[in-house]
Design brief:
This protein has two domains: 18-156 and 316-395, Periplasmic binding protein-like II (D-Maltodextrin-Binding Protein, domain 2); 158-315 and 398-446, Periplasmic binding protein-like II (D-Maltodextrin-Binding Protein, domain 2). 42% of the residues lie in helices and 14% in strands. The protein has helices at residues 35-42, 58-70, 89-95, 106-115, 122-125, 136-141, 164-169, 179-189, 207-217, 238-252, 264-272, 286-291, 329-343, 345-356, 381-393, 401-417, 423-446; strands spanning 45-51, 74-80, 101-105, 143-144, 147-148, 151-163, 223-225, 231-233, 278-282, 299-302, 314-323, 394-395. The chain starts with 34 loop residues before the first helix and ends with a helix. Pfam families: SBP_bac_1. This is Multiple sugar transport system substrate-binding protein. Residues 1-20 form the signal peptide.
C-alpha cells in the first residue's frame, strides 16, 4: 500500500465502542481568547480526567505541557483506566465518582443523553470559531432537542473488506455490489482444501453487531426509537427475517467459516492470513490484518453490498468528548478548554503529522470538513473514496443495542447453528423474551 500503512492509531477493537479508550492520546488547539482572564478570576481548577496509558510519547507530553502553560490555573488529575473509560461513566456519575469529562464511545451516547448526565455544550460551541468546521452529520448525532452533548473526535466506519488476490485468482474483477454478487463470489473463492473461506461473519459472539448491517440493507431495523425516548422492538420486521434468511443461505451454500466458534479477533487474524475472501471490516482493522501477514496491497475496502432495499448504509463507530453535568461550573469551563484544545484544528493537524513520522494510521474519518486523513497520508484511491462515501451513509447502531443486543445475538446463533431453525419463530421468541426481561426497564429509564 503506497506509503506508511503499518502503525495503528486507534484503539477501536470490536463493537464500535472501544475507540473511546484512545481519547487521552489526542489534544487540540481551540479559540481560547480571554480564557486566562476568566480562569484567573475563578482561581485554580483541578480537572479530573479518566485516561489510558496508551500512545503516550514525547509529542503527547509536549502538547499536554503546552495546554497547561496556556491555562496556568488548570491542573490535571489523570486517573488511568484501561479499556473504554467512557463505558463506566454512567455508574460513576450515580456513585459520585465520575470524572469532570470523559472520552465516550458513540455506542454509549444515546443512553447517556437520555439519562441527563451530560452537560449541554451550546454555550461553548456557540462562541467557538471552529465549531462550523465540524461535519454536520456527526454533530447531529449528538444533538438532542437542540442541545449539543458531545464533540466528535475520531470516526471509524464499518466497511467491507475483500482479499484482492483471492478475487483475482477466482477471476473476479471487482468487489460485490449486492448480496447475490457476494454469495456468488464467495462460492468461487471458497476452498476448504486450502482452508480458505469465501465469506465470514460473526457467529459465536456479538452476532448482533454485524447482523444489524444486513437488517438495514434489507430496509428495516431491530428497534424503533419513539419521540419520548422509549423503544419498540421490531425483531419480526420483514427486513430482519430477510437478513436471517441470507445468513442461512450463506451457511447452507457452505461459504461461511466452517468453525462457527471463531470470535472477532480470530476473523480479523484469519483475514490477515489470507484465509477469508470477504467480510464486514472497519477501517481501523487494516493494520491488525497487516501484522498477520497480508500484503497491504491485497486489502480491498468498499461499502457493504446492498440488500433487498437497494440502498447502502452502514454503521459508524468512534468517540466523542463529553462533560459531566453533575460537576461544578468552574470545572465545566475548564473541561471545555481541554476538549476544545484536544479537538481543535491546530492540535489535530499536529497529531496526524506526528503519526506520519511513525507510520500512517488506519483509514479513518476526521469529523471536520476542513481536514481529511488523506491530507496527511497517501492511501489507495479507493480508500479515500469509500471514506468520503461513508460520511453520508453512516449511522449509529440500533437504538438500545446495549440493552437488547444479547437477545438478537441468541436468535442469530440459533439460525446459523441449526439448519432447521425458522427465523420467524426464533426472532419472535427473542422479542417476547426481550420485552419481558428488558424493554420495560429500558423505557422507564429513557422516557422523557
Amino acid at each position: 500500500m503506497k506509503k506508511k500503512l503499518i502503525a495503528s492509531v486507534l484503539c477501536l477493537s470490536m463493537a464500535a465502542a472501544s475507540l473511546a479508550g484512545c481519547g487521552g492520546s489526542d489534544g487540540n488547539k481551540a479559540d481560547t481568547s480571554g480564557s486566562k482572564d476568566k480562569e484567573s478570576s475563578k482561581g485554580k481548577v483541578e480537572l479530573t480526567i479518566w485516561d489510558t496509558s496508551r500512545n503516550k510519547d514525547d509529542w503527547y507530553t509536549s502538547m499536554e505541557k503546552k495546554f497547561l502553560e496556556e491555562h496556568p490555573d488548570i491542573t490535571l488529575n489523570k486517573v488511568v483506566k484501561e479499556g473504554d473509560p467512557g463505558n463506566e461513566f454512567y455508574q460513576a456519575v450515580a456513585s459520585g465518582t465520575a470524572p469532570d469529562l470523559v472520552n465516550c464511545s458513540f455506542t454509549m451516547m444515546d443512553s447517556y443523553m437520555s439519562a441527563g448526565i451530560l452537560e449541554p455544550l451550546n454555550k461553548y460551541t456557540d462562541e467557538w470559531d471552529e465549531w462550523g468546521d465540524f461535519t454536520k452529520e456527526y454533530v447531529d448525532m449528538f444533538t438532542k432537542d437542540g442541545n449539543v452533548y458531545g464533540i466528535p473526535n475520531l470516526v471509524a466506519p464499518m466497511l467491507f473488506a475483500y482479499n484482492k488476490t483471492l478475487f483475482e485468482e477466482a477471476g473476479i474483477n471487482e468487489p460485490p455490489k449486492t448480496w447475490d454478487e457476494a454469495l456468488e463470489a464467495a462460492k468461487k473463492i471458497n476452498d476448504p482444501d486450502n482452508q480458505v473461506t469465501g465469506y465470514a461473519t460473526l457467529a459465536a459472539e456479538w452476532t448482533e453487531w454485524f447482523f444489524q448491517y444486513y437488517v438495514w440493507q434489507a430496509g428495516g431495523d431491530l428497534t424503533k426509537e419513539n419521540e419520548d425516548g422509549t423503544a419498540e422492538l421490531t425483531f419480526t420486521d420483514p427486513a430482519v427475517i430477510q437478513a436471517a434468511e441470507y445468513y442461512q443461505k450463506l451457511k447452507s451454500e457452505g461459504v461461511l467459516q466452517s468453525d462457527l466458534t471463531l470470535k472477532f479477533n480470530d476473523l480479523v487474524k484469519n483475514f490477515g492470513m489470507g484465509k477469508i475472501g470477504m467480510m464486514p471490516f472497519a477501517g481501523d482493522w487494516v493494520s491488525e490484518a497487516i501484522t498477520n501477514g497480508i500484503d497491504p496491497d491485497d486489502i480491498g475496502l468498499c461499502l457493504p453490498p446492498v440488500g433487498p432495499s437497494g440502498e447502502q448504509t452502514t454503521a459508524i463507530a468512534g468517540d466523542c468528548y463529553v462533560i459531566n453535568a453533575k460537576t461544578d461550573q468552574a470545572k465545566k469551563d475548564a473541561a471545555w478548554e481541554y476538549i476544545s484544545y484536544m479537538t481543535g484544528k491546530e492540535y489535530r493537524s499536529s497529531y496526524f503529522e506526528n503519526l506520519a513520522t511513525k507510520g500512517a494510521p488506519n483509514p479513518v474519518i476526521i469529523p471536520r470538513d476542513d481536514m481529511s486523513i488523506t491530507d496527511f497520508y497517501e492511501f489507495p484511491e479507493e480508500y479515500a473514496e469509500v471514506l468520503e462515501s461513508a460520511k453520508s451513509i453512516g449511522r449509529l447502531e440500533f437504538y438500545g443495542k446495549a440493552d437488547f443486543g444479547t437477545y438478537v445475538d441468541k436468535a442469530v446463533q440459533k439460525i446459523l447453528t441449526d439448519p432447521s431453525a425458522d427465523p420467524e419463530k426464533e426472532f419472535s421468541e427473542a422479542q417476547s423474551l426481550c420485552e419481558k426481561e428488558a424493554l420495560e426497564k429500558f423505557n422507564e429509564a429513557n422516557k422523557k
